């Protein structure tokens, strides 16, 4: 992928070319430390995955992720930038609020932390399942079309 000079992805690619082995980020909670090259590799893989799944420039991806997955969130955000996909972060733990966010953004996709606790007996997976009951009958790899 080529990125225009002056864009976030363009600046990042220039930094990788200049000093690929420089440490760029540490995720203490996940015990990870990445160089510019490693982060570039992971985020590019995510970008290519989005493109292979049919995402196009301007599509929206809602992130409803937990802070314990900070490495994954950062990779998804940079990967989306590289693919030209908008990222909308979402943190409110209610079915109605998530439904409104998905509709308002005309989201093409949703990334969420399924095991994150919302209440004593409810996880984010429960909220998503209520909005998309079709998930309970799907197999891994099936395409979900929700209106």
Model description:
With 147 residues, this protein is α/β, with parallel strands linked by helices. The protein has a single domain (8-137), classed as Rossmann fold (3-Layer(aba) Sandwich). It is built from five helices and seven strands, in the order H-E-E-H-E-H-E-H-E-E-E-H. It has a three-stranded parallel sheet with strand order 4-3-5, with helices on both faces. It has a two-stranded antiparallel ribbon with strand order 1-2. Strands 6-7 form a two-stranded antiparallel ribbon. The longest helix is centred in the N-terminal third of the chain and has 17 residues, at 36-52. 17% of the residues are buried. The model has no long low-confidence stretch (mean pLDDT 87).
Short description:
The protein has 147 residues and is α/β, with parallel strands linked by helices. It has helices spanning 8-18, 36-52, 70-83, 95-105, 124-131; strands at residues 23-27, 32-35, 60-64, 86-89, 109-112, 117-119, 122-123.
**How many domains comprise the coordinates?**
1
In what order do the strands lie side by side in the largest sheet? Answer: 4-3-5
> Roughly how many Å apart are the termini?
32 Å
Q: Write down the Rg.
A: 17 Å
The helix-and-strand class reads: alpha/beta
Q: Per CATH, what is the topology?
A: Rossmann fold
Helical fraction: 40-55%
Which stretches are poorly predicted, pLDDT < 50 over at least 5 residues? Answer: none
Shape: globular
CATH class division: Alpha Beta
What portion of residues belong to β-strands?
Answer: 15-25%
Summarize model confidence as the mean pLDDT.
Answer: 87
CATH architecture, by name, is 3-Layer(aba) Sandwich
